[in-house]
Protein 1
Amino acid sequence: MKKHILAIAAAIVVAGTITFIACNKDNDTNQIVNPSYVSAKGGMTLEQLRNAMVAYYAACDRAYQDDSTTFLSVCANSDMTNFLTITGLTSEAITDYQTLALSENEDYINKHPNLIKEVIQRFSCQEYPLPRLGKLASQTNGHLSALIPESAVEINRDHLNSIIYACRCDNPHIMAARISSSLSYMAKRQLSSMLNVFWRHCDYAYVNSPTLLKGTCEKEDHNLFYEVTKLSQDFFDELIGLANVSYSEFIEDNPDYDFTGNGDTCSKCQQPSLIEIWYRIADIHSVSDKIKEYAPDYFDTVVYMLPPIDPCIKWCTNLQPRNHDREQWCYLDCTMERNLLKIQQVLMMFEYAATH
C-alpha cells in the first residue's frame, strides 16, 4: 500500500515538454562540413562544446549588459559585423565552436543514425538568427548563459544534435549564431533545477536560522535575504529570465492554451513580498514533516517539477507595468504556493490511507 501511495503521490507532480521552433534554409542544412577531428568516444567533445556555447553566450551577456539598446539594434538588423565588434567574439573562437558542434554531431549520428532521421523532420534552423538571439537575450535580461547546464551530462543530447544537424552551414559565424539562437529548449529543465536549488537553500536557512530568516523577511530586506539563503542577485535574475523564456517558448507553440483550468488569478501577484516567502517556507516544511511521519523516505526536500506551462509564469511575467524584481518575487511566491497545494494533496492521501 505504501509503495502504491508513493507512486500516486509522485504522479501529482507533472513534468511537461517544450517544443523547439525555428525556420529553415534547406540548401545549407543539406551540406555536410567535415570537422577536423571526431571524438574517439561517445560525447567526448560535448563538454568542450558546452564550454564554447557558454563562452558565446557570456560574450552576448556582457554586450547586452553594457549597452542593451545597441546590442538589440545590432541583432534586429542582422548586423553580423557589428555583432562581432560589440561582443568581442573572434573568428577563431567561432570556428572552434563550429568544429566542436560538427564533431559532436558526426559522433552522435554514427551512433544514432535512425534517431536523427526520425527527429530531423521536426527541427529546422532559421536563416537569419540574430533577431531571435536578441529576443532571447531580452527575455533573459542579459543572462543567456543561464540556459546552459553546469555539466554536459545534463544536456539533452537528442535535442542538441537535432539542432546542430539542422543548423549546419559553411559559414561558422552563421552556424554558431543559428545554434545559439535555438537553445531555448534548455530553459525549462534549467528553471526546474534552479527552483530546486532555491528551495534547498531556503529550507536550510529555515532549519538552521529560523529567527534570522523570519526577521529578514519581515523587514523585506532583500540583500539580507540573499545573504541568509546564500543566494546571489544574479541567481534570481537568471531564474526569472528562464521563466520568461519557458513561457515564451510554450506560448509560441501553444497560442490557444487555456490557463483557466489551472486557475486564472494570483492573489500575491500585485504585491509580492518576502514575508509571503517566509510563510510558504514554513508551511511547506511543516507539511513535509507530516508526510515523513507516514513515509520517512518520501521527501528530503521539496522537488519542483513544472507542468507543461506553469500559470505562475503567465501571471507574473505579464505584470504591468513591467518590473523585473517584482516579477521575480511574484513568481517565487506563486510557485511555492502552488507547490504547497500539491504536497498538501499528497499528505491528504497518506492520511486517508492510514484511516481506511
Protein 2
Amino acid sequence: MIKHLKIYIFIFITVFYFSINCAVSLEVKKIDLDDAIQLSLSNNLDLQSARIEVELAKNGVGIANRLKNPEINFFYNFGRAGRSEPQMLGVSQTLEIAKRAPRKRLAKSELLQKELDVKTAEFTLEMDVRETYVDLVGAKTILNDLTEQREILQELLILAQKRYKANKCSQTDVIQAQIALNKLETEINSAKTLLNLRRNDFNKALNIKENTSVIYDTKEDSLPGETVFISLKTPDYNQKMPTFEEIEKRALDKRNDIKQAKQAVDIAQKNFSVVARQRIPDIEVMGGYSFLPSTHADSGSFESGAYVGANLTNIPLLYSYKPEIKNAKLQIEQAQINYESVRNKAQKDLSSAYDKFLSSRENLIFYKQKLVKDSEDLIKISKKNYNEGKADLTSVVVMEQSYRDILTGYIMALADYYTDWIDFLREVNSEDFNLYGENL
C-alpha cells in the first residue's frame, strides 16, 4: 500500500512539474487590432503562398512575349547525288505573325487578375483576424461579467449565513445561495473553455510561423466602453445611420469580386483574340552559306556562295481552329453573364448585411438604454429588501439569474453589433469604409 502511494505521489509531482514548466514557457503577447492585422499581412503563411501566384503570373508575361528559337541547318550530299549540287550550312527562323502582342496582352490581363486575387485574400484575412479578435474580446467580457456575478452571489451567501446565525431566516436560504453559486461556477468554467477556443481561433487566423511558445492575445479585456468602438474600428451605435441608398453605389464600387468578374470578361476577350489569330500563317525564313567542293564542281575549282529562302507555315487548310474560336466566344458570353450575376448578388448581399447591422444596432440600444439599467436597479433593490427582511431569498436568486441572462444577452448583442459590422465590411470589400461620406 505504501509502495503504491509513493508511486502515485511520484506521478503527481511529475505531472505537476511538467505542467508548471509548460505554463511558464508559454509567452502571451497582447496586441491591438491594427497590430494584429499588420502582423498577419506580413507573416500569414496562406497569404505568402497567394503572393507567389503573382510572381508566377509576372513570369507568364515574359513567357507570352517569347520568340521562337532558331534552327541551325546543314545539308551535305553524298555520292553522285551531290555532284554539281552545293552543300549548305545556315539558320532558319519561324516568325509568328500577329500572335505575340495578343498573347502578351492576355498574360498581362491574367496578371491583373492574380493581383486582384491577392487583394481579396488580404482583405479576407483582415476580416478573419478582425472577427476572431472581436470574438476573443467578447469571450473575455463574458468571463469578466460572470466573475462579477460570482461576487454578487458570494455576498448574497455571506448575507444569508449572517441572517441564519441571527435566526432571521432558515438554513434553506444558505443552501439555496450555495447552489446558485455552484451553478454559476459551472458557467464560469464553460466561459473559460470558450475563451481558450476563441484565443486559438484568433491565433489560427493569424497563422504565423513563429515560436510555438508564443500565443497572441487581445489588448482589450472587455467590449463595452466608448473608446472600444474606436479601437475596434466600428461606428458608434449612437450615431445616426444613413439609408442604404446613400451608401449602395460607393459600397458596390469597392467590391473585389465585381472587379474580378469584370477582369474575367477582359481575359475572355483577350483569349478570343489569341485563339482567332492562330488562323494566320507564320513565316519561316532561312539563309546561310553554300559551297561546292572542287571534286563536285564542273569547273574543277572550289565554288562558294549563299542562299536565302522563305516558307509559309501553319496554313489553316486542313484545320481552321473553328472549335477553339467557338469556345472562345462562348467563354466571353459566359464571363459577361457571370459578371452580371456577381453584381446582382452583391447588391442583395450588401442590402441584407446592412439591414442585419441596423437590426443589431437597435437591439444594442434597447439593451443599453432599457434592460441593463433597469436590471441593475432591480438587483440592488432586491438585495436591500432581502437584507431588511422584506423579500425572500428565492426572489433575489431569481432576480440575479435574470440579471445575469440580461447581461449575457447584452454582451451577445454588443458582439453581434461588432461582427455584423464586419459582415457588412465583407460585403463592401473595404476595411475602412466610411458610412457618412468619402472613404478613408
Protein 3
Amino acid sequence: MNHDASNKYILPTVLVVSNNQTELISDSSVLPPIKQVHMSILESAKILPWVQQYQPDLIVLDLASPQIINLQLIAALRLDWLTRNIPIMILAGSTPKQIKLLEQLDYNAFLIKPYSPSELGKKICSLVSTPACEIFAR
C-alpha cells in the first residue's frame, strides 16, 4: 500500500503492457483513482528500466503479445531484486494456447477476456490498495 508520511493515500500506479493502447475497462469503480501507464510490449527493452525506476504498484500484462517476449519479461522482472515483489496480473484470451501459457508464467492473478468491471476491480484490489477498494471488502 502506498501512502505518505501524513498517512494520506498516494494513487497507485498500474503499468499496462500490451500490443496496443487498450485501456482497462474504464467503468470499474476502482480505476478512476489509479494512475494507468501504458507501454507497448514492442518496447520490451524499455519496460524493465522503467519498472526499476518508477516502481509501479501493479503490472498488467496482456497475453495478446508474442509469447516469448512475455516469458522473457516476466523472468526478468522476477529475477531483478528491484522488481521481483511487484505483483503481476495477466490478461489472457480464452484460447487453449493462451490458457496453456498461463501454466508457464509466474504471476499473482489473471483474468480471462472478456471480463467484467467487477472482476477487474476485485483482482486489482487483491493486489493493490486504494480507498476505492473498500467496496470489495464488504
